[in-house]
Amino acid sequence: MRRRHLLALLAVGAAGSPLTWATAGVNSPLMLANVYHPGVPLADYWVSEKYDGVRGYWDGQQLLTRGGERVNAPAWFTAGWPATPLDGELWAGRGQFTKAVSTVRQQIPIDAAWRGMRFMVFDLPAQGGPFTERIPVLNQLLATMAVPWVQPVAQSRVASHQTLQALLAKTVRLGGEGLMLHRGASLYRAQRNDDLLKVKTHEDAEARVIAHIPGKGKYAGLLGALLVQMPDAAGQPGLRFKLGTGFSDEQRRNPPALGSWVTYRFRGLNDSGLPRFASFMRVREDMPS
Questions:
Q1: Residue 50: half-sphere exposure toward Cβ, Cα within 13 Å
Q2: What 3-state DSSP class applies to 225?
Q3: Is the pTM here over 0.85, yes or no?
């Protein structure tokens, strides 16, 4: 599918029912991260803060979510942005994930809410060359733009696993979500691989809600657990499992909708591939149902 045709399809979807990369018949153009593990050659990577917001992709003409839905930002927010694609995070500040999601998902943008948003840019998808060479190009581009709410993500180096863990602990203590590692020699590739790694104090992942399982005992008449399904992998349907902890009383009274995506935290996988000690974290409202 030609790029112009794709942009037209997504624009139509924004006016009616939202279109995504999948419904437009194309793969997501975004680079996705794997999870960090000890033994990774840290000298090969740049490290930055992992911003807890909504993934934003500026394709040169419009702002889109990770799923390909158009973001209805105020005209002033994207005025003067370049024709070149930008990959980043729409961020409302540390600990403000819910605020960021609420702001981004408004069909009629709330100007006051967008005044508190920033677009933290971490890559130039269409820029050739390795990431180490893309960093100064990105910094120069954003400096030339001189738009206060569009900022480059600061990149640095770490020498060891111990130094990385110390930086992670400091970031989390200050209210951050975690860190990202980006291989300096990597090209921008729209796939999930070890060129991009997330570093967090716990593992987390997403799953789709398949069913609501009624509660028993003190949870009678409320949600007992969610039956969720992991994303498909290697052409095989994702595994299903019950997610029964981590919910507030309000969430048990009004559970996440069927078909929605949720984030859960866990501690490794068992031999069957299912997550161990999985616990609900939040609904991923930035991912299409």
A1: 21
A2: strand
A3: no
Please say if 99 is a catalytic residue. Answer: no
Question: Residues 50, 99, 200, 216: which is the catalytic one?
Answer: 50
Residue with token string 């920033």: 118
Of 66, 106, 13, 34, which is closest to residue 288 (Cα–Cα)? Answer: 66
Query: Encoding tokens for residue 257?
Result: 């909708």
176-223 pLDDT, tens per residue? 989 999 999 999 998 889 999 999 888 788 999 999 999 999 999 999
Contact (CB, 8 A) for 289 and 259: yes
Each residue of 21-33: pLDDT tens digit?
A: 555 555 678 999 9
Other CB atoms within 10 A of residue 178 CB: 18
Distance CA 260, CA 251 (A): 14
Beta 178-183 vs 223-229: how paired, if at all?
unpaired
The three-state secondary structure class of 203 is: strand
The answer to whether 93 touches 36, Cβ cutoff 8 Å, is no
